[in-house]
Amino acid sequence: MFIPNSIIKSLKHQEEPLKGEFSLLCWNVAKLTLKSSYKEFLDSMIQNHDFDLLLLQEVKKSLSSELGIHDYSYILSPNIQTKKHMFGVMSAFKSSCEDELCLLSKKRELKYATHKVSLITHHKISEDKTLLVVNLHAINFVHNRDFKNELDHLYVSIRNHRGAMIVAGDFNTWNLKRSHLLKEFTENLSLKKVEFSDEKHLKKIFTNSIDHIFYRELNVTYSEVIDSKKISDHNPIIAKFSTL
Fold it and tell me: In the CATH hierarchy, which fold is given to the domain comprising 8-243?
């Protein structure tokens, strides 16, 4: 395995702003993106919810074939590459992407000596305003101080953005210290957490939720955790927003 040196992207909605009301899917797909069961389940969710933004973690892509993702523009920001496959986070959208930034973690995870990755994208919501979106897969198997350092690195990269923001993904907040560090990070950015009325399908470790959607300067109009029938060890979380 080695560190990829480039992102993969297909941008075909560059003249379209994000809608005033939009929906978002956030899901750690556990490297199952080439499986038919995953594709069928994703197809059904897209048909039911017509998502405007897809934020997927642990995406697996074959280097020998295109990535089929319906009628979406997309950016795949990889953290691992082998001879046949690339893995990482992918953001897909039906709007313009004004800018993107891939942040590879400074530390490597102890178990596999691999980096984690975050993808920052900017989407136009009006003539003079953009929505900043972070698709994050937080580092695991490191000391809490390293987890904090990675959040600090991300914070520096997005703190100067003025306006609406979404930070979502798999935060690996499986202990109280990590949860507190994440709370401090989100408070410093004036982010609120999307709440779910029924959390029984939400991925948890030691009673701590690890998948989250945070936002600011938006209204949440709907949220849900969807039972994926164990297609992945995480369940999809969705939220619908309206711009202020």
Answer: Deoxyribonuclease I; Chain A (3.60.10)
pTM (whole model) above 0.85 = yes
What are the residue boundaries of the structural domains of the chain, listed by start? 8-243
Query: Residue 86 pairs with which residues in a beta bridge?
Result: 61, 81
Distance, CA of 213 to chain centre:
9
| Interstrand relation of 85-93 and 73-81 (parallel, antiparallel or unpaired) | antiparallel
Structure token digits, residue 53? 């933004």
* Residue 241 backbone zone (phi > 0: left; psi -120 to 50: alpha; other: beta): beta
Q: Is the pLDDT of residue 189 over 70?
A: yes
* Per-residue confidence (pLDDT) for residue 83, from 0 to 100: 86
Q: Tokens 């709007």 identify what position?
A: 95
Q: Is the pLDDT of residue 31 over 90?
A: no
From residue 104, alpha-carbon distances to 56, 108, 139 in Å are 16, 10, 10
Query: For residue 111, what pLDDT is reported?
Result: 61
Q: What 3 state SS string does 136-202 have?
A: EECCCCCCHHHHHHHHHHHHHHHCCCCCCEEEEEECCCCCHHHHHHHHHHHHHCCCEECCCCCCCCC
Tens of pLDDT, residue by residue over 204-229, are 877 788 899 999 999 999 999 999 88
Q: What CA–CA distance (Å, rounded) separates 30 from 40?
A: 15
